[in-house]
């Protein structure tokens, strides 16, 4: 699971919050006080087509279909070649952690407007290339954090009681009752690397179980309960009985736990990884387990993972797979950290809403690779108003040209922001006749800074 600290949404900084919390609640008591928003739709994408992969919740599919959009829904991930072949006719794609959206896929995605990662991590998408193509990427920064935290709690007990060994032996007919090397988790130290939504949630659960909690993070974070932030990774490693990772996959985190870090861990300690496969150097983990320096490990994520159920987890996929599979007290699971009914339902709703808000209203609030821009709704009475959504290169002079194109109309409201090389402008303009629309769009999109221009009405 990625560290959601990387993708926090500064809702309070958004220009949407024009109604105070008092007014919202006051208005909700008397429905007649509320000004109903006009329902917007993309003007040119009446036949929006969505490609939904990796068994994403049917709730999400229902949300899209309820808008009249065409949805193709598949249980498995797609390879790069398959995507290159298929993606050209779709306006949106929904994926989880397996499908890779590379520059090559983006080059083939002639109509693509938006990408939804129905999970926390977004490392499977070339975020920069997507932004430069004018495509915002949305994820679900915390909806599966409880599921992951609960899985870690179970892994602590499973490892410290050698539960899988005993269960496996009994399933093969062998009675092997023993207490040697089996421990309570009460009073032990849990070291959490990455104190985002998952790490923090886990911290609270672990303390209620009687564990002492340390955490290491690259930013200073207020500890929950009596947890304590430590200054260095080494300190965390040398003091913890269990080390658990909750960081995103970034250049800086790849192989962050390798030979040196295993040596720094206490003899007899355990490693748990439900984050990303490449964060742990697995050949080095195998050495640490074989030498009995570590007493066990629980691994849910791998550098290479099969794209569909039923596919083998073998040496052709990861060269050390058979060695790892044969080690005692190693719990291997098929990337199920966020795989609960609750998490998948919440993620489905959250990301489906974000995609719909972008396609219908142009809102990029919550996008991980894009400036976050939104506007207060056009009201139902403002029938002649339309919304201009203009993604463009972040260079001088663009707004002048766009505002010249808008100058025959009254601009009711406008907001623009930039992130790196791209900028995004939303403008609501009044009394635009249907016959003006093609010309207006041509004028706005004719600058050499234009990336994508859409009109919503
Ligand atoms: O949320 C994440 O980042 C996860 O790793 C879960 O991935 P999944 O949706 O199970 O492919």
UniProtKB/TrEMBL annotation:
Keywords: NAD, Oxidoreductase
PROSITE patterns found in the cross-reference section: D_2_HYDROXYACID_DH_1, D_2_HYDROXYACID_DH_2, D_2_HYDROXYACID_DH_3
CDD domains: PGDH_3
InterPro entries assigned: D-iso_2-hydroxyacid_DH_PdxB, D-isomer_2_OHA_DH_cat_dom, D-isomer_DH_CS, D-isomer_DH_CS1, D-isomer_DH_NAD-bd, NAD(P)-bd_dom_sf
GO molecular function ontology, one term from the record: NAD binding
Record carries keyword Zinc: no
Residues annotated as domain D-isomer specific 2-hydroxyacid dehydrogenase NAD-binding: 156-337
Occurrences of domain D-isomer specific 2-hydroxyacid dehydrogenase catalytic (ranges): 51-369
BP GO annotations: L-serine biosynthetic process
UniProt KW Transcription keyword: no
UniProt-listed NCBIfam families: PRK11790.1
Family membership: Belongs to the D-isomer specific 2-hydroxyacid dehydrogenase family.
PANTHER family: D-ISOMER SPECIFIC 2-HYDROXYACID DEHYDROGENASE CATALYTIC DOMAIN-CONTAINING PROTEIN-RELATED (PTHR43761:SF1), D-ISOMER SPECIFIC 2-HYDROXYACID DEHYDROGENASE FAMILY PROTEIN (AFU_ORTHOLOGUE AFUA_1G13630) (PTHR43761)
Name by which UniProt lists this protein: Phosphoglycerate dehydrogenase
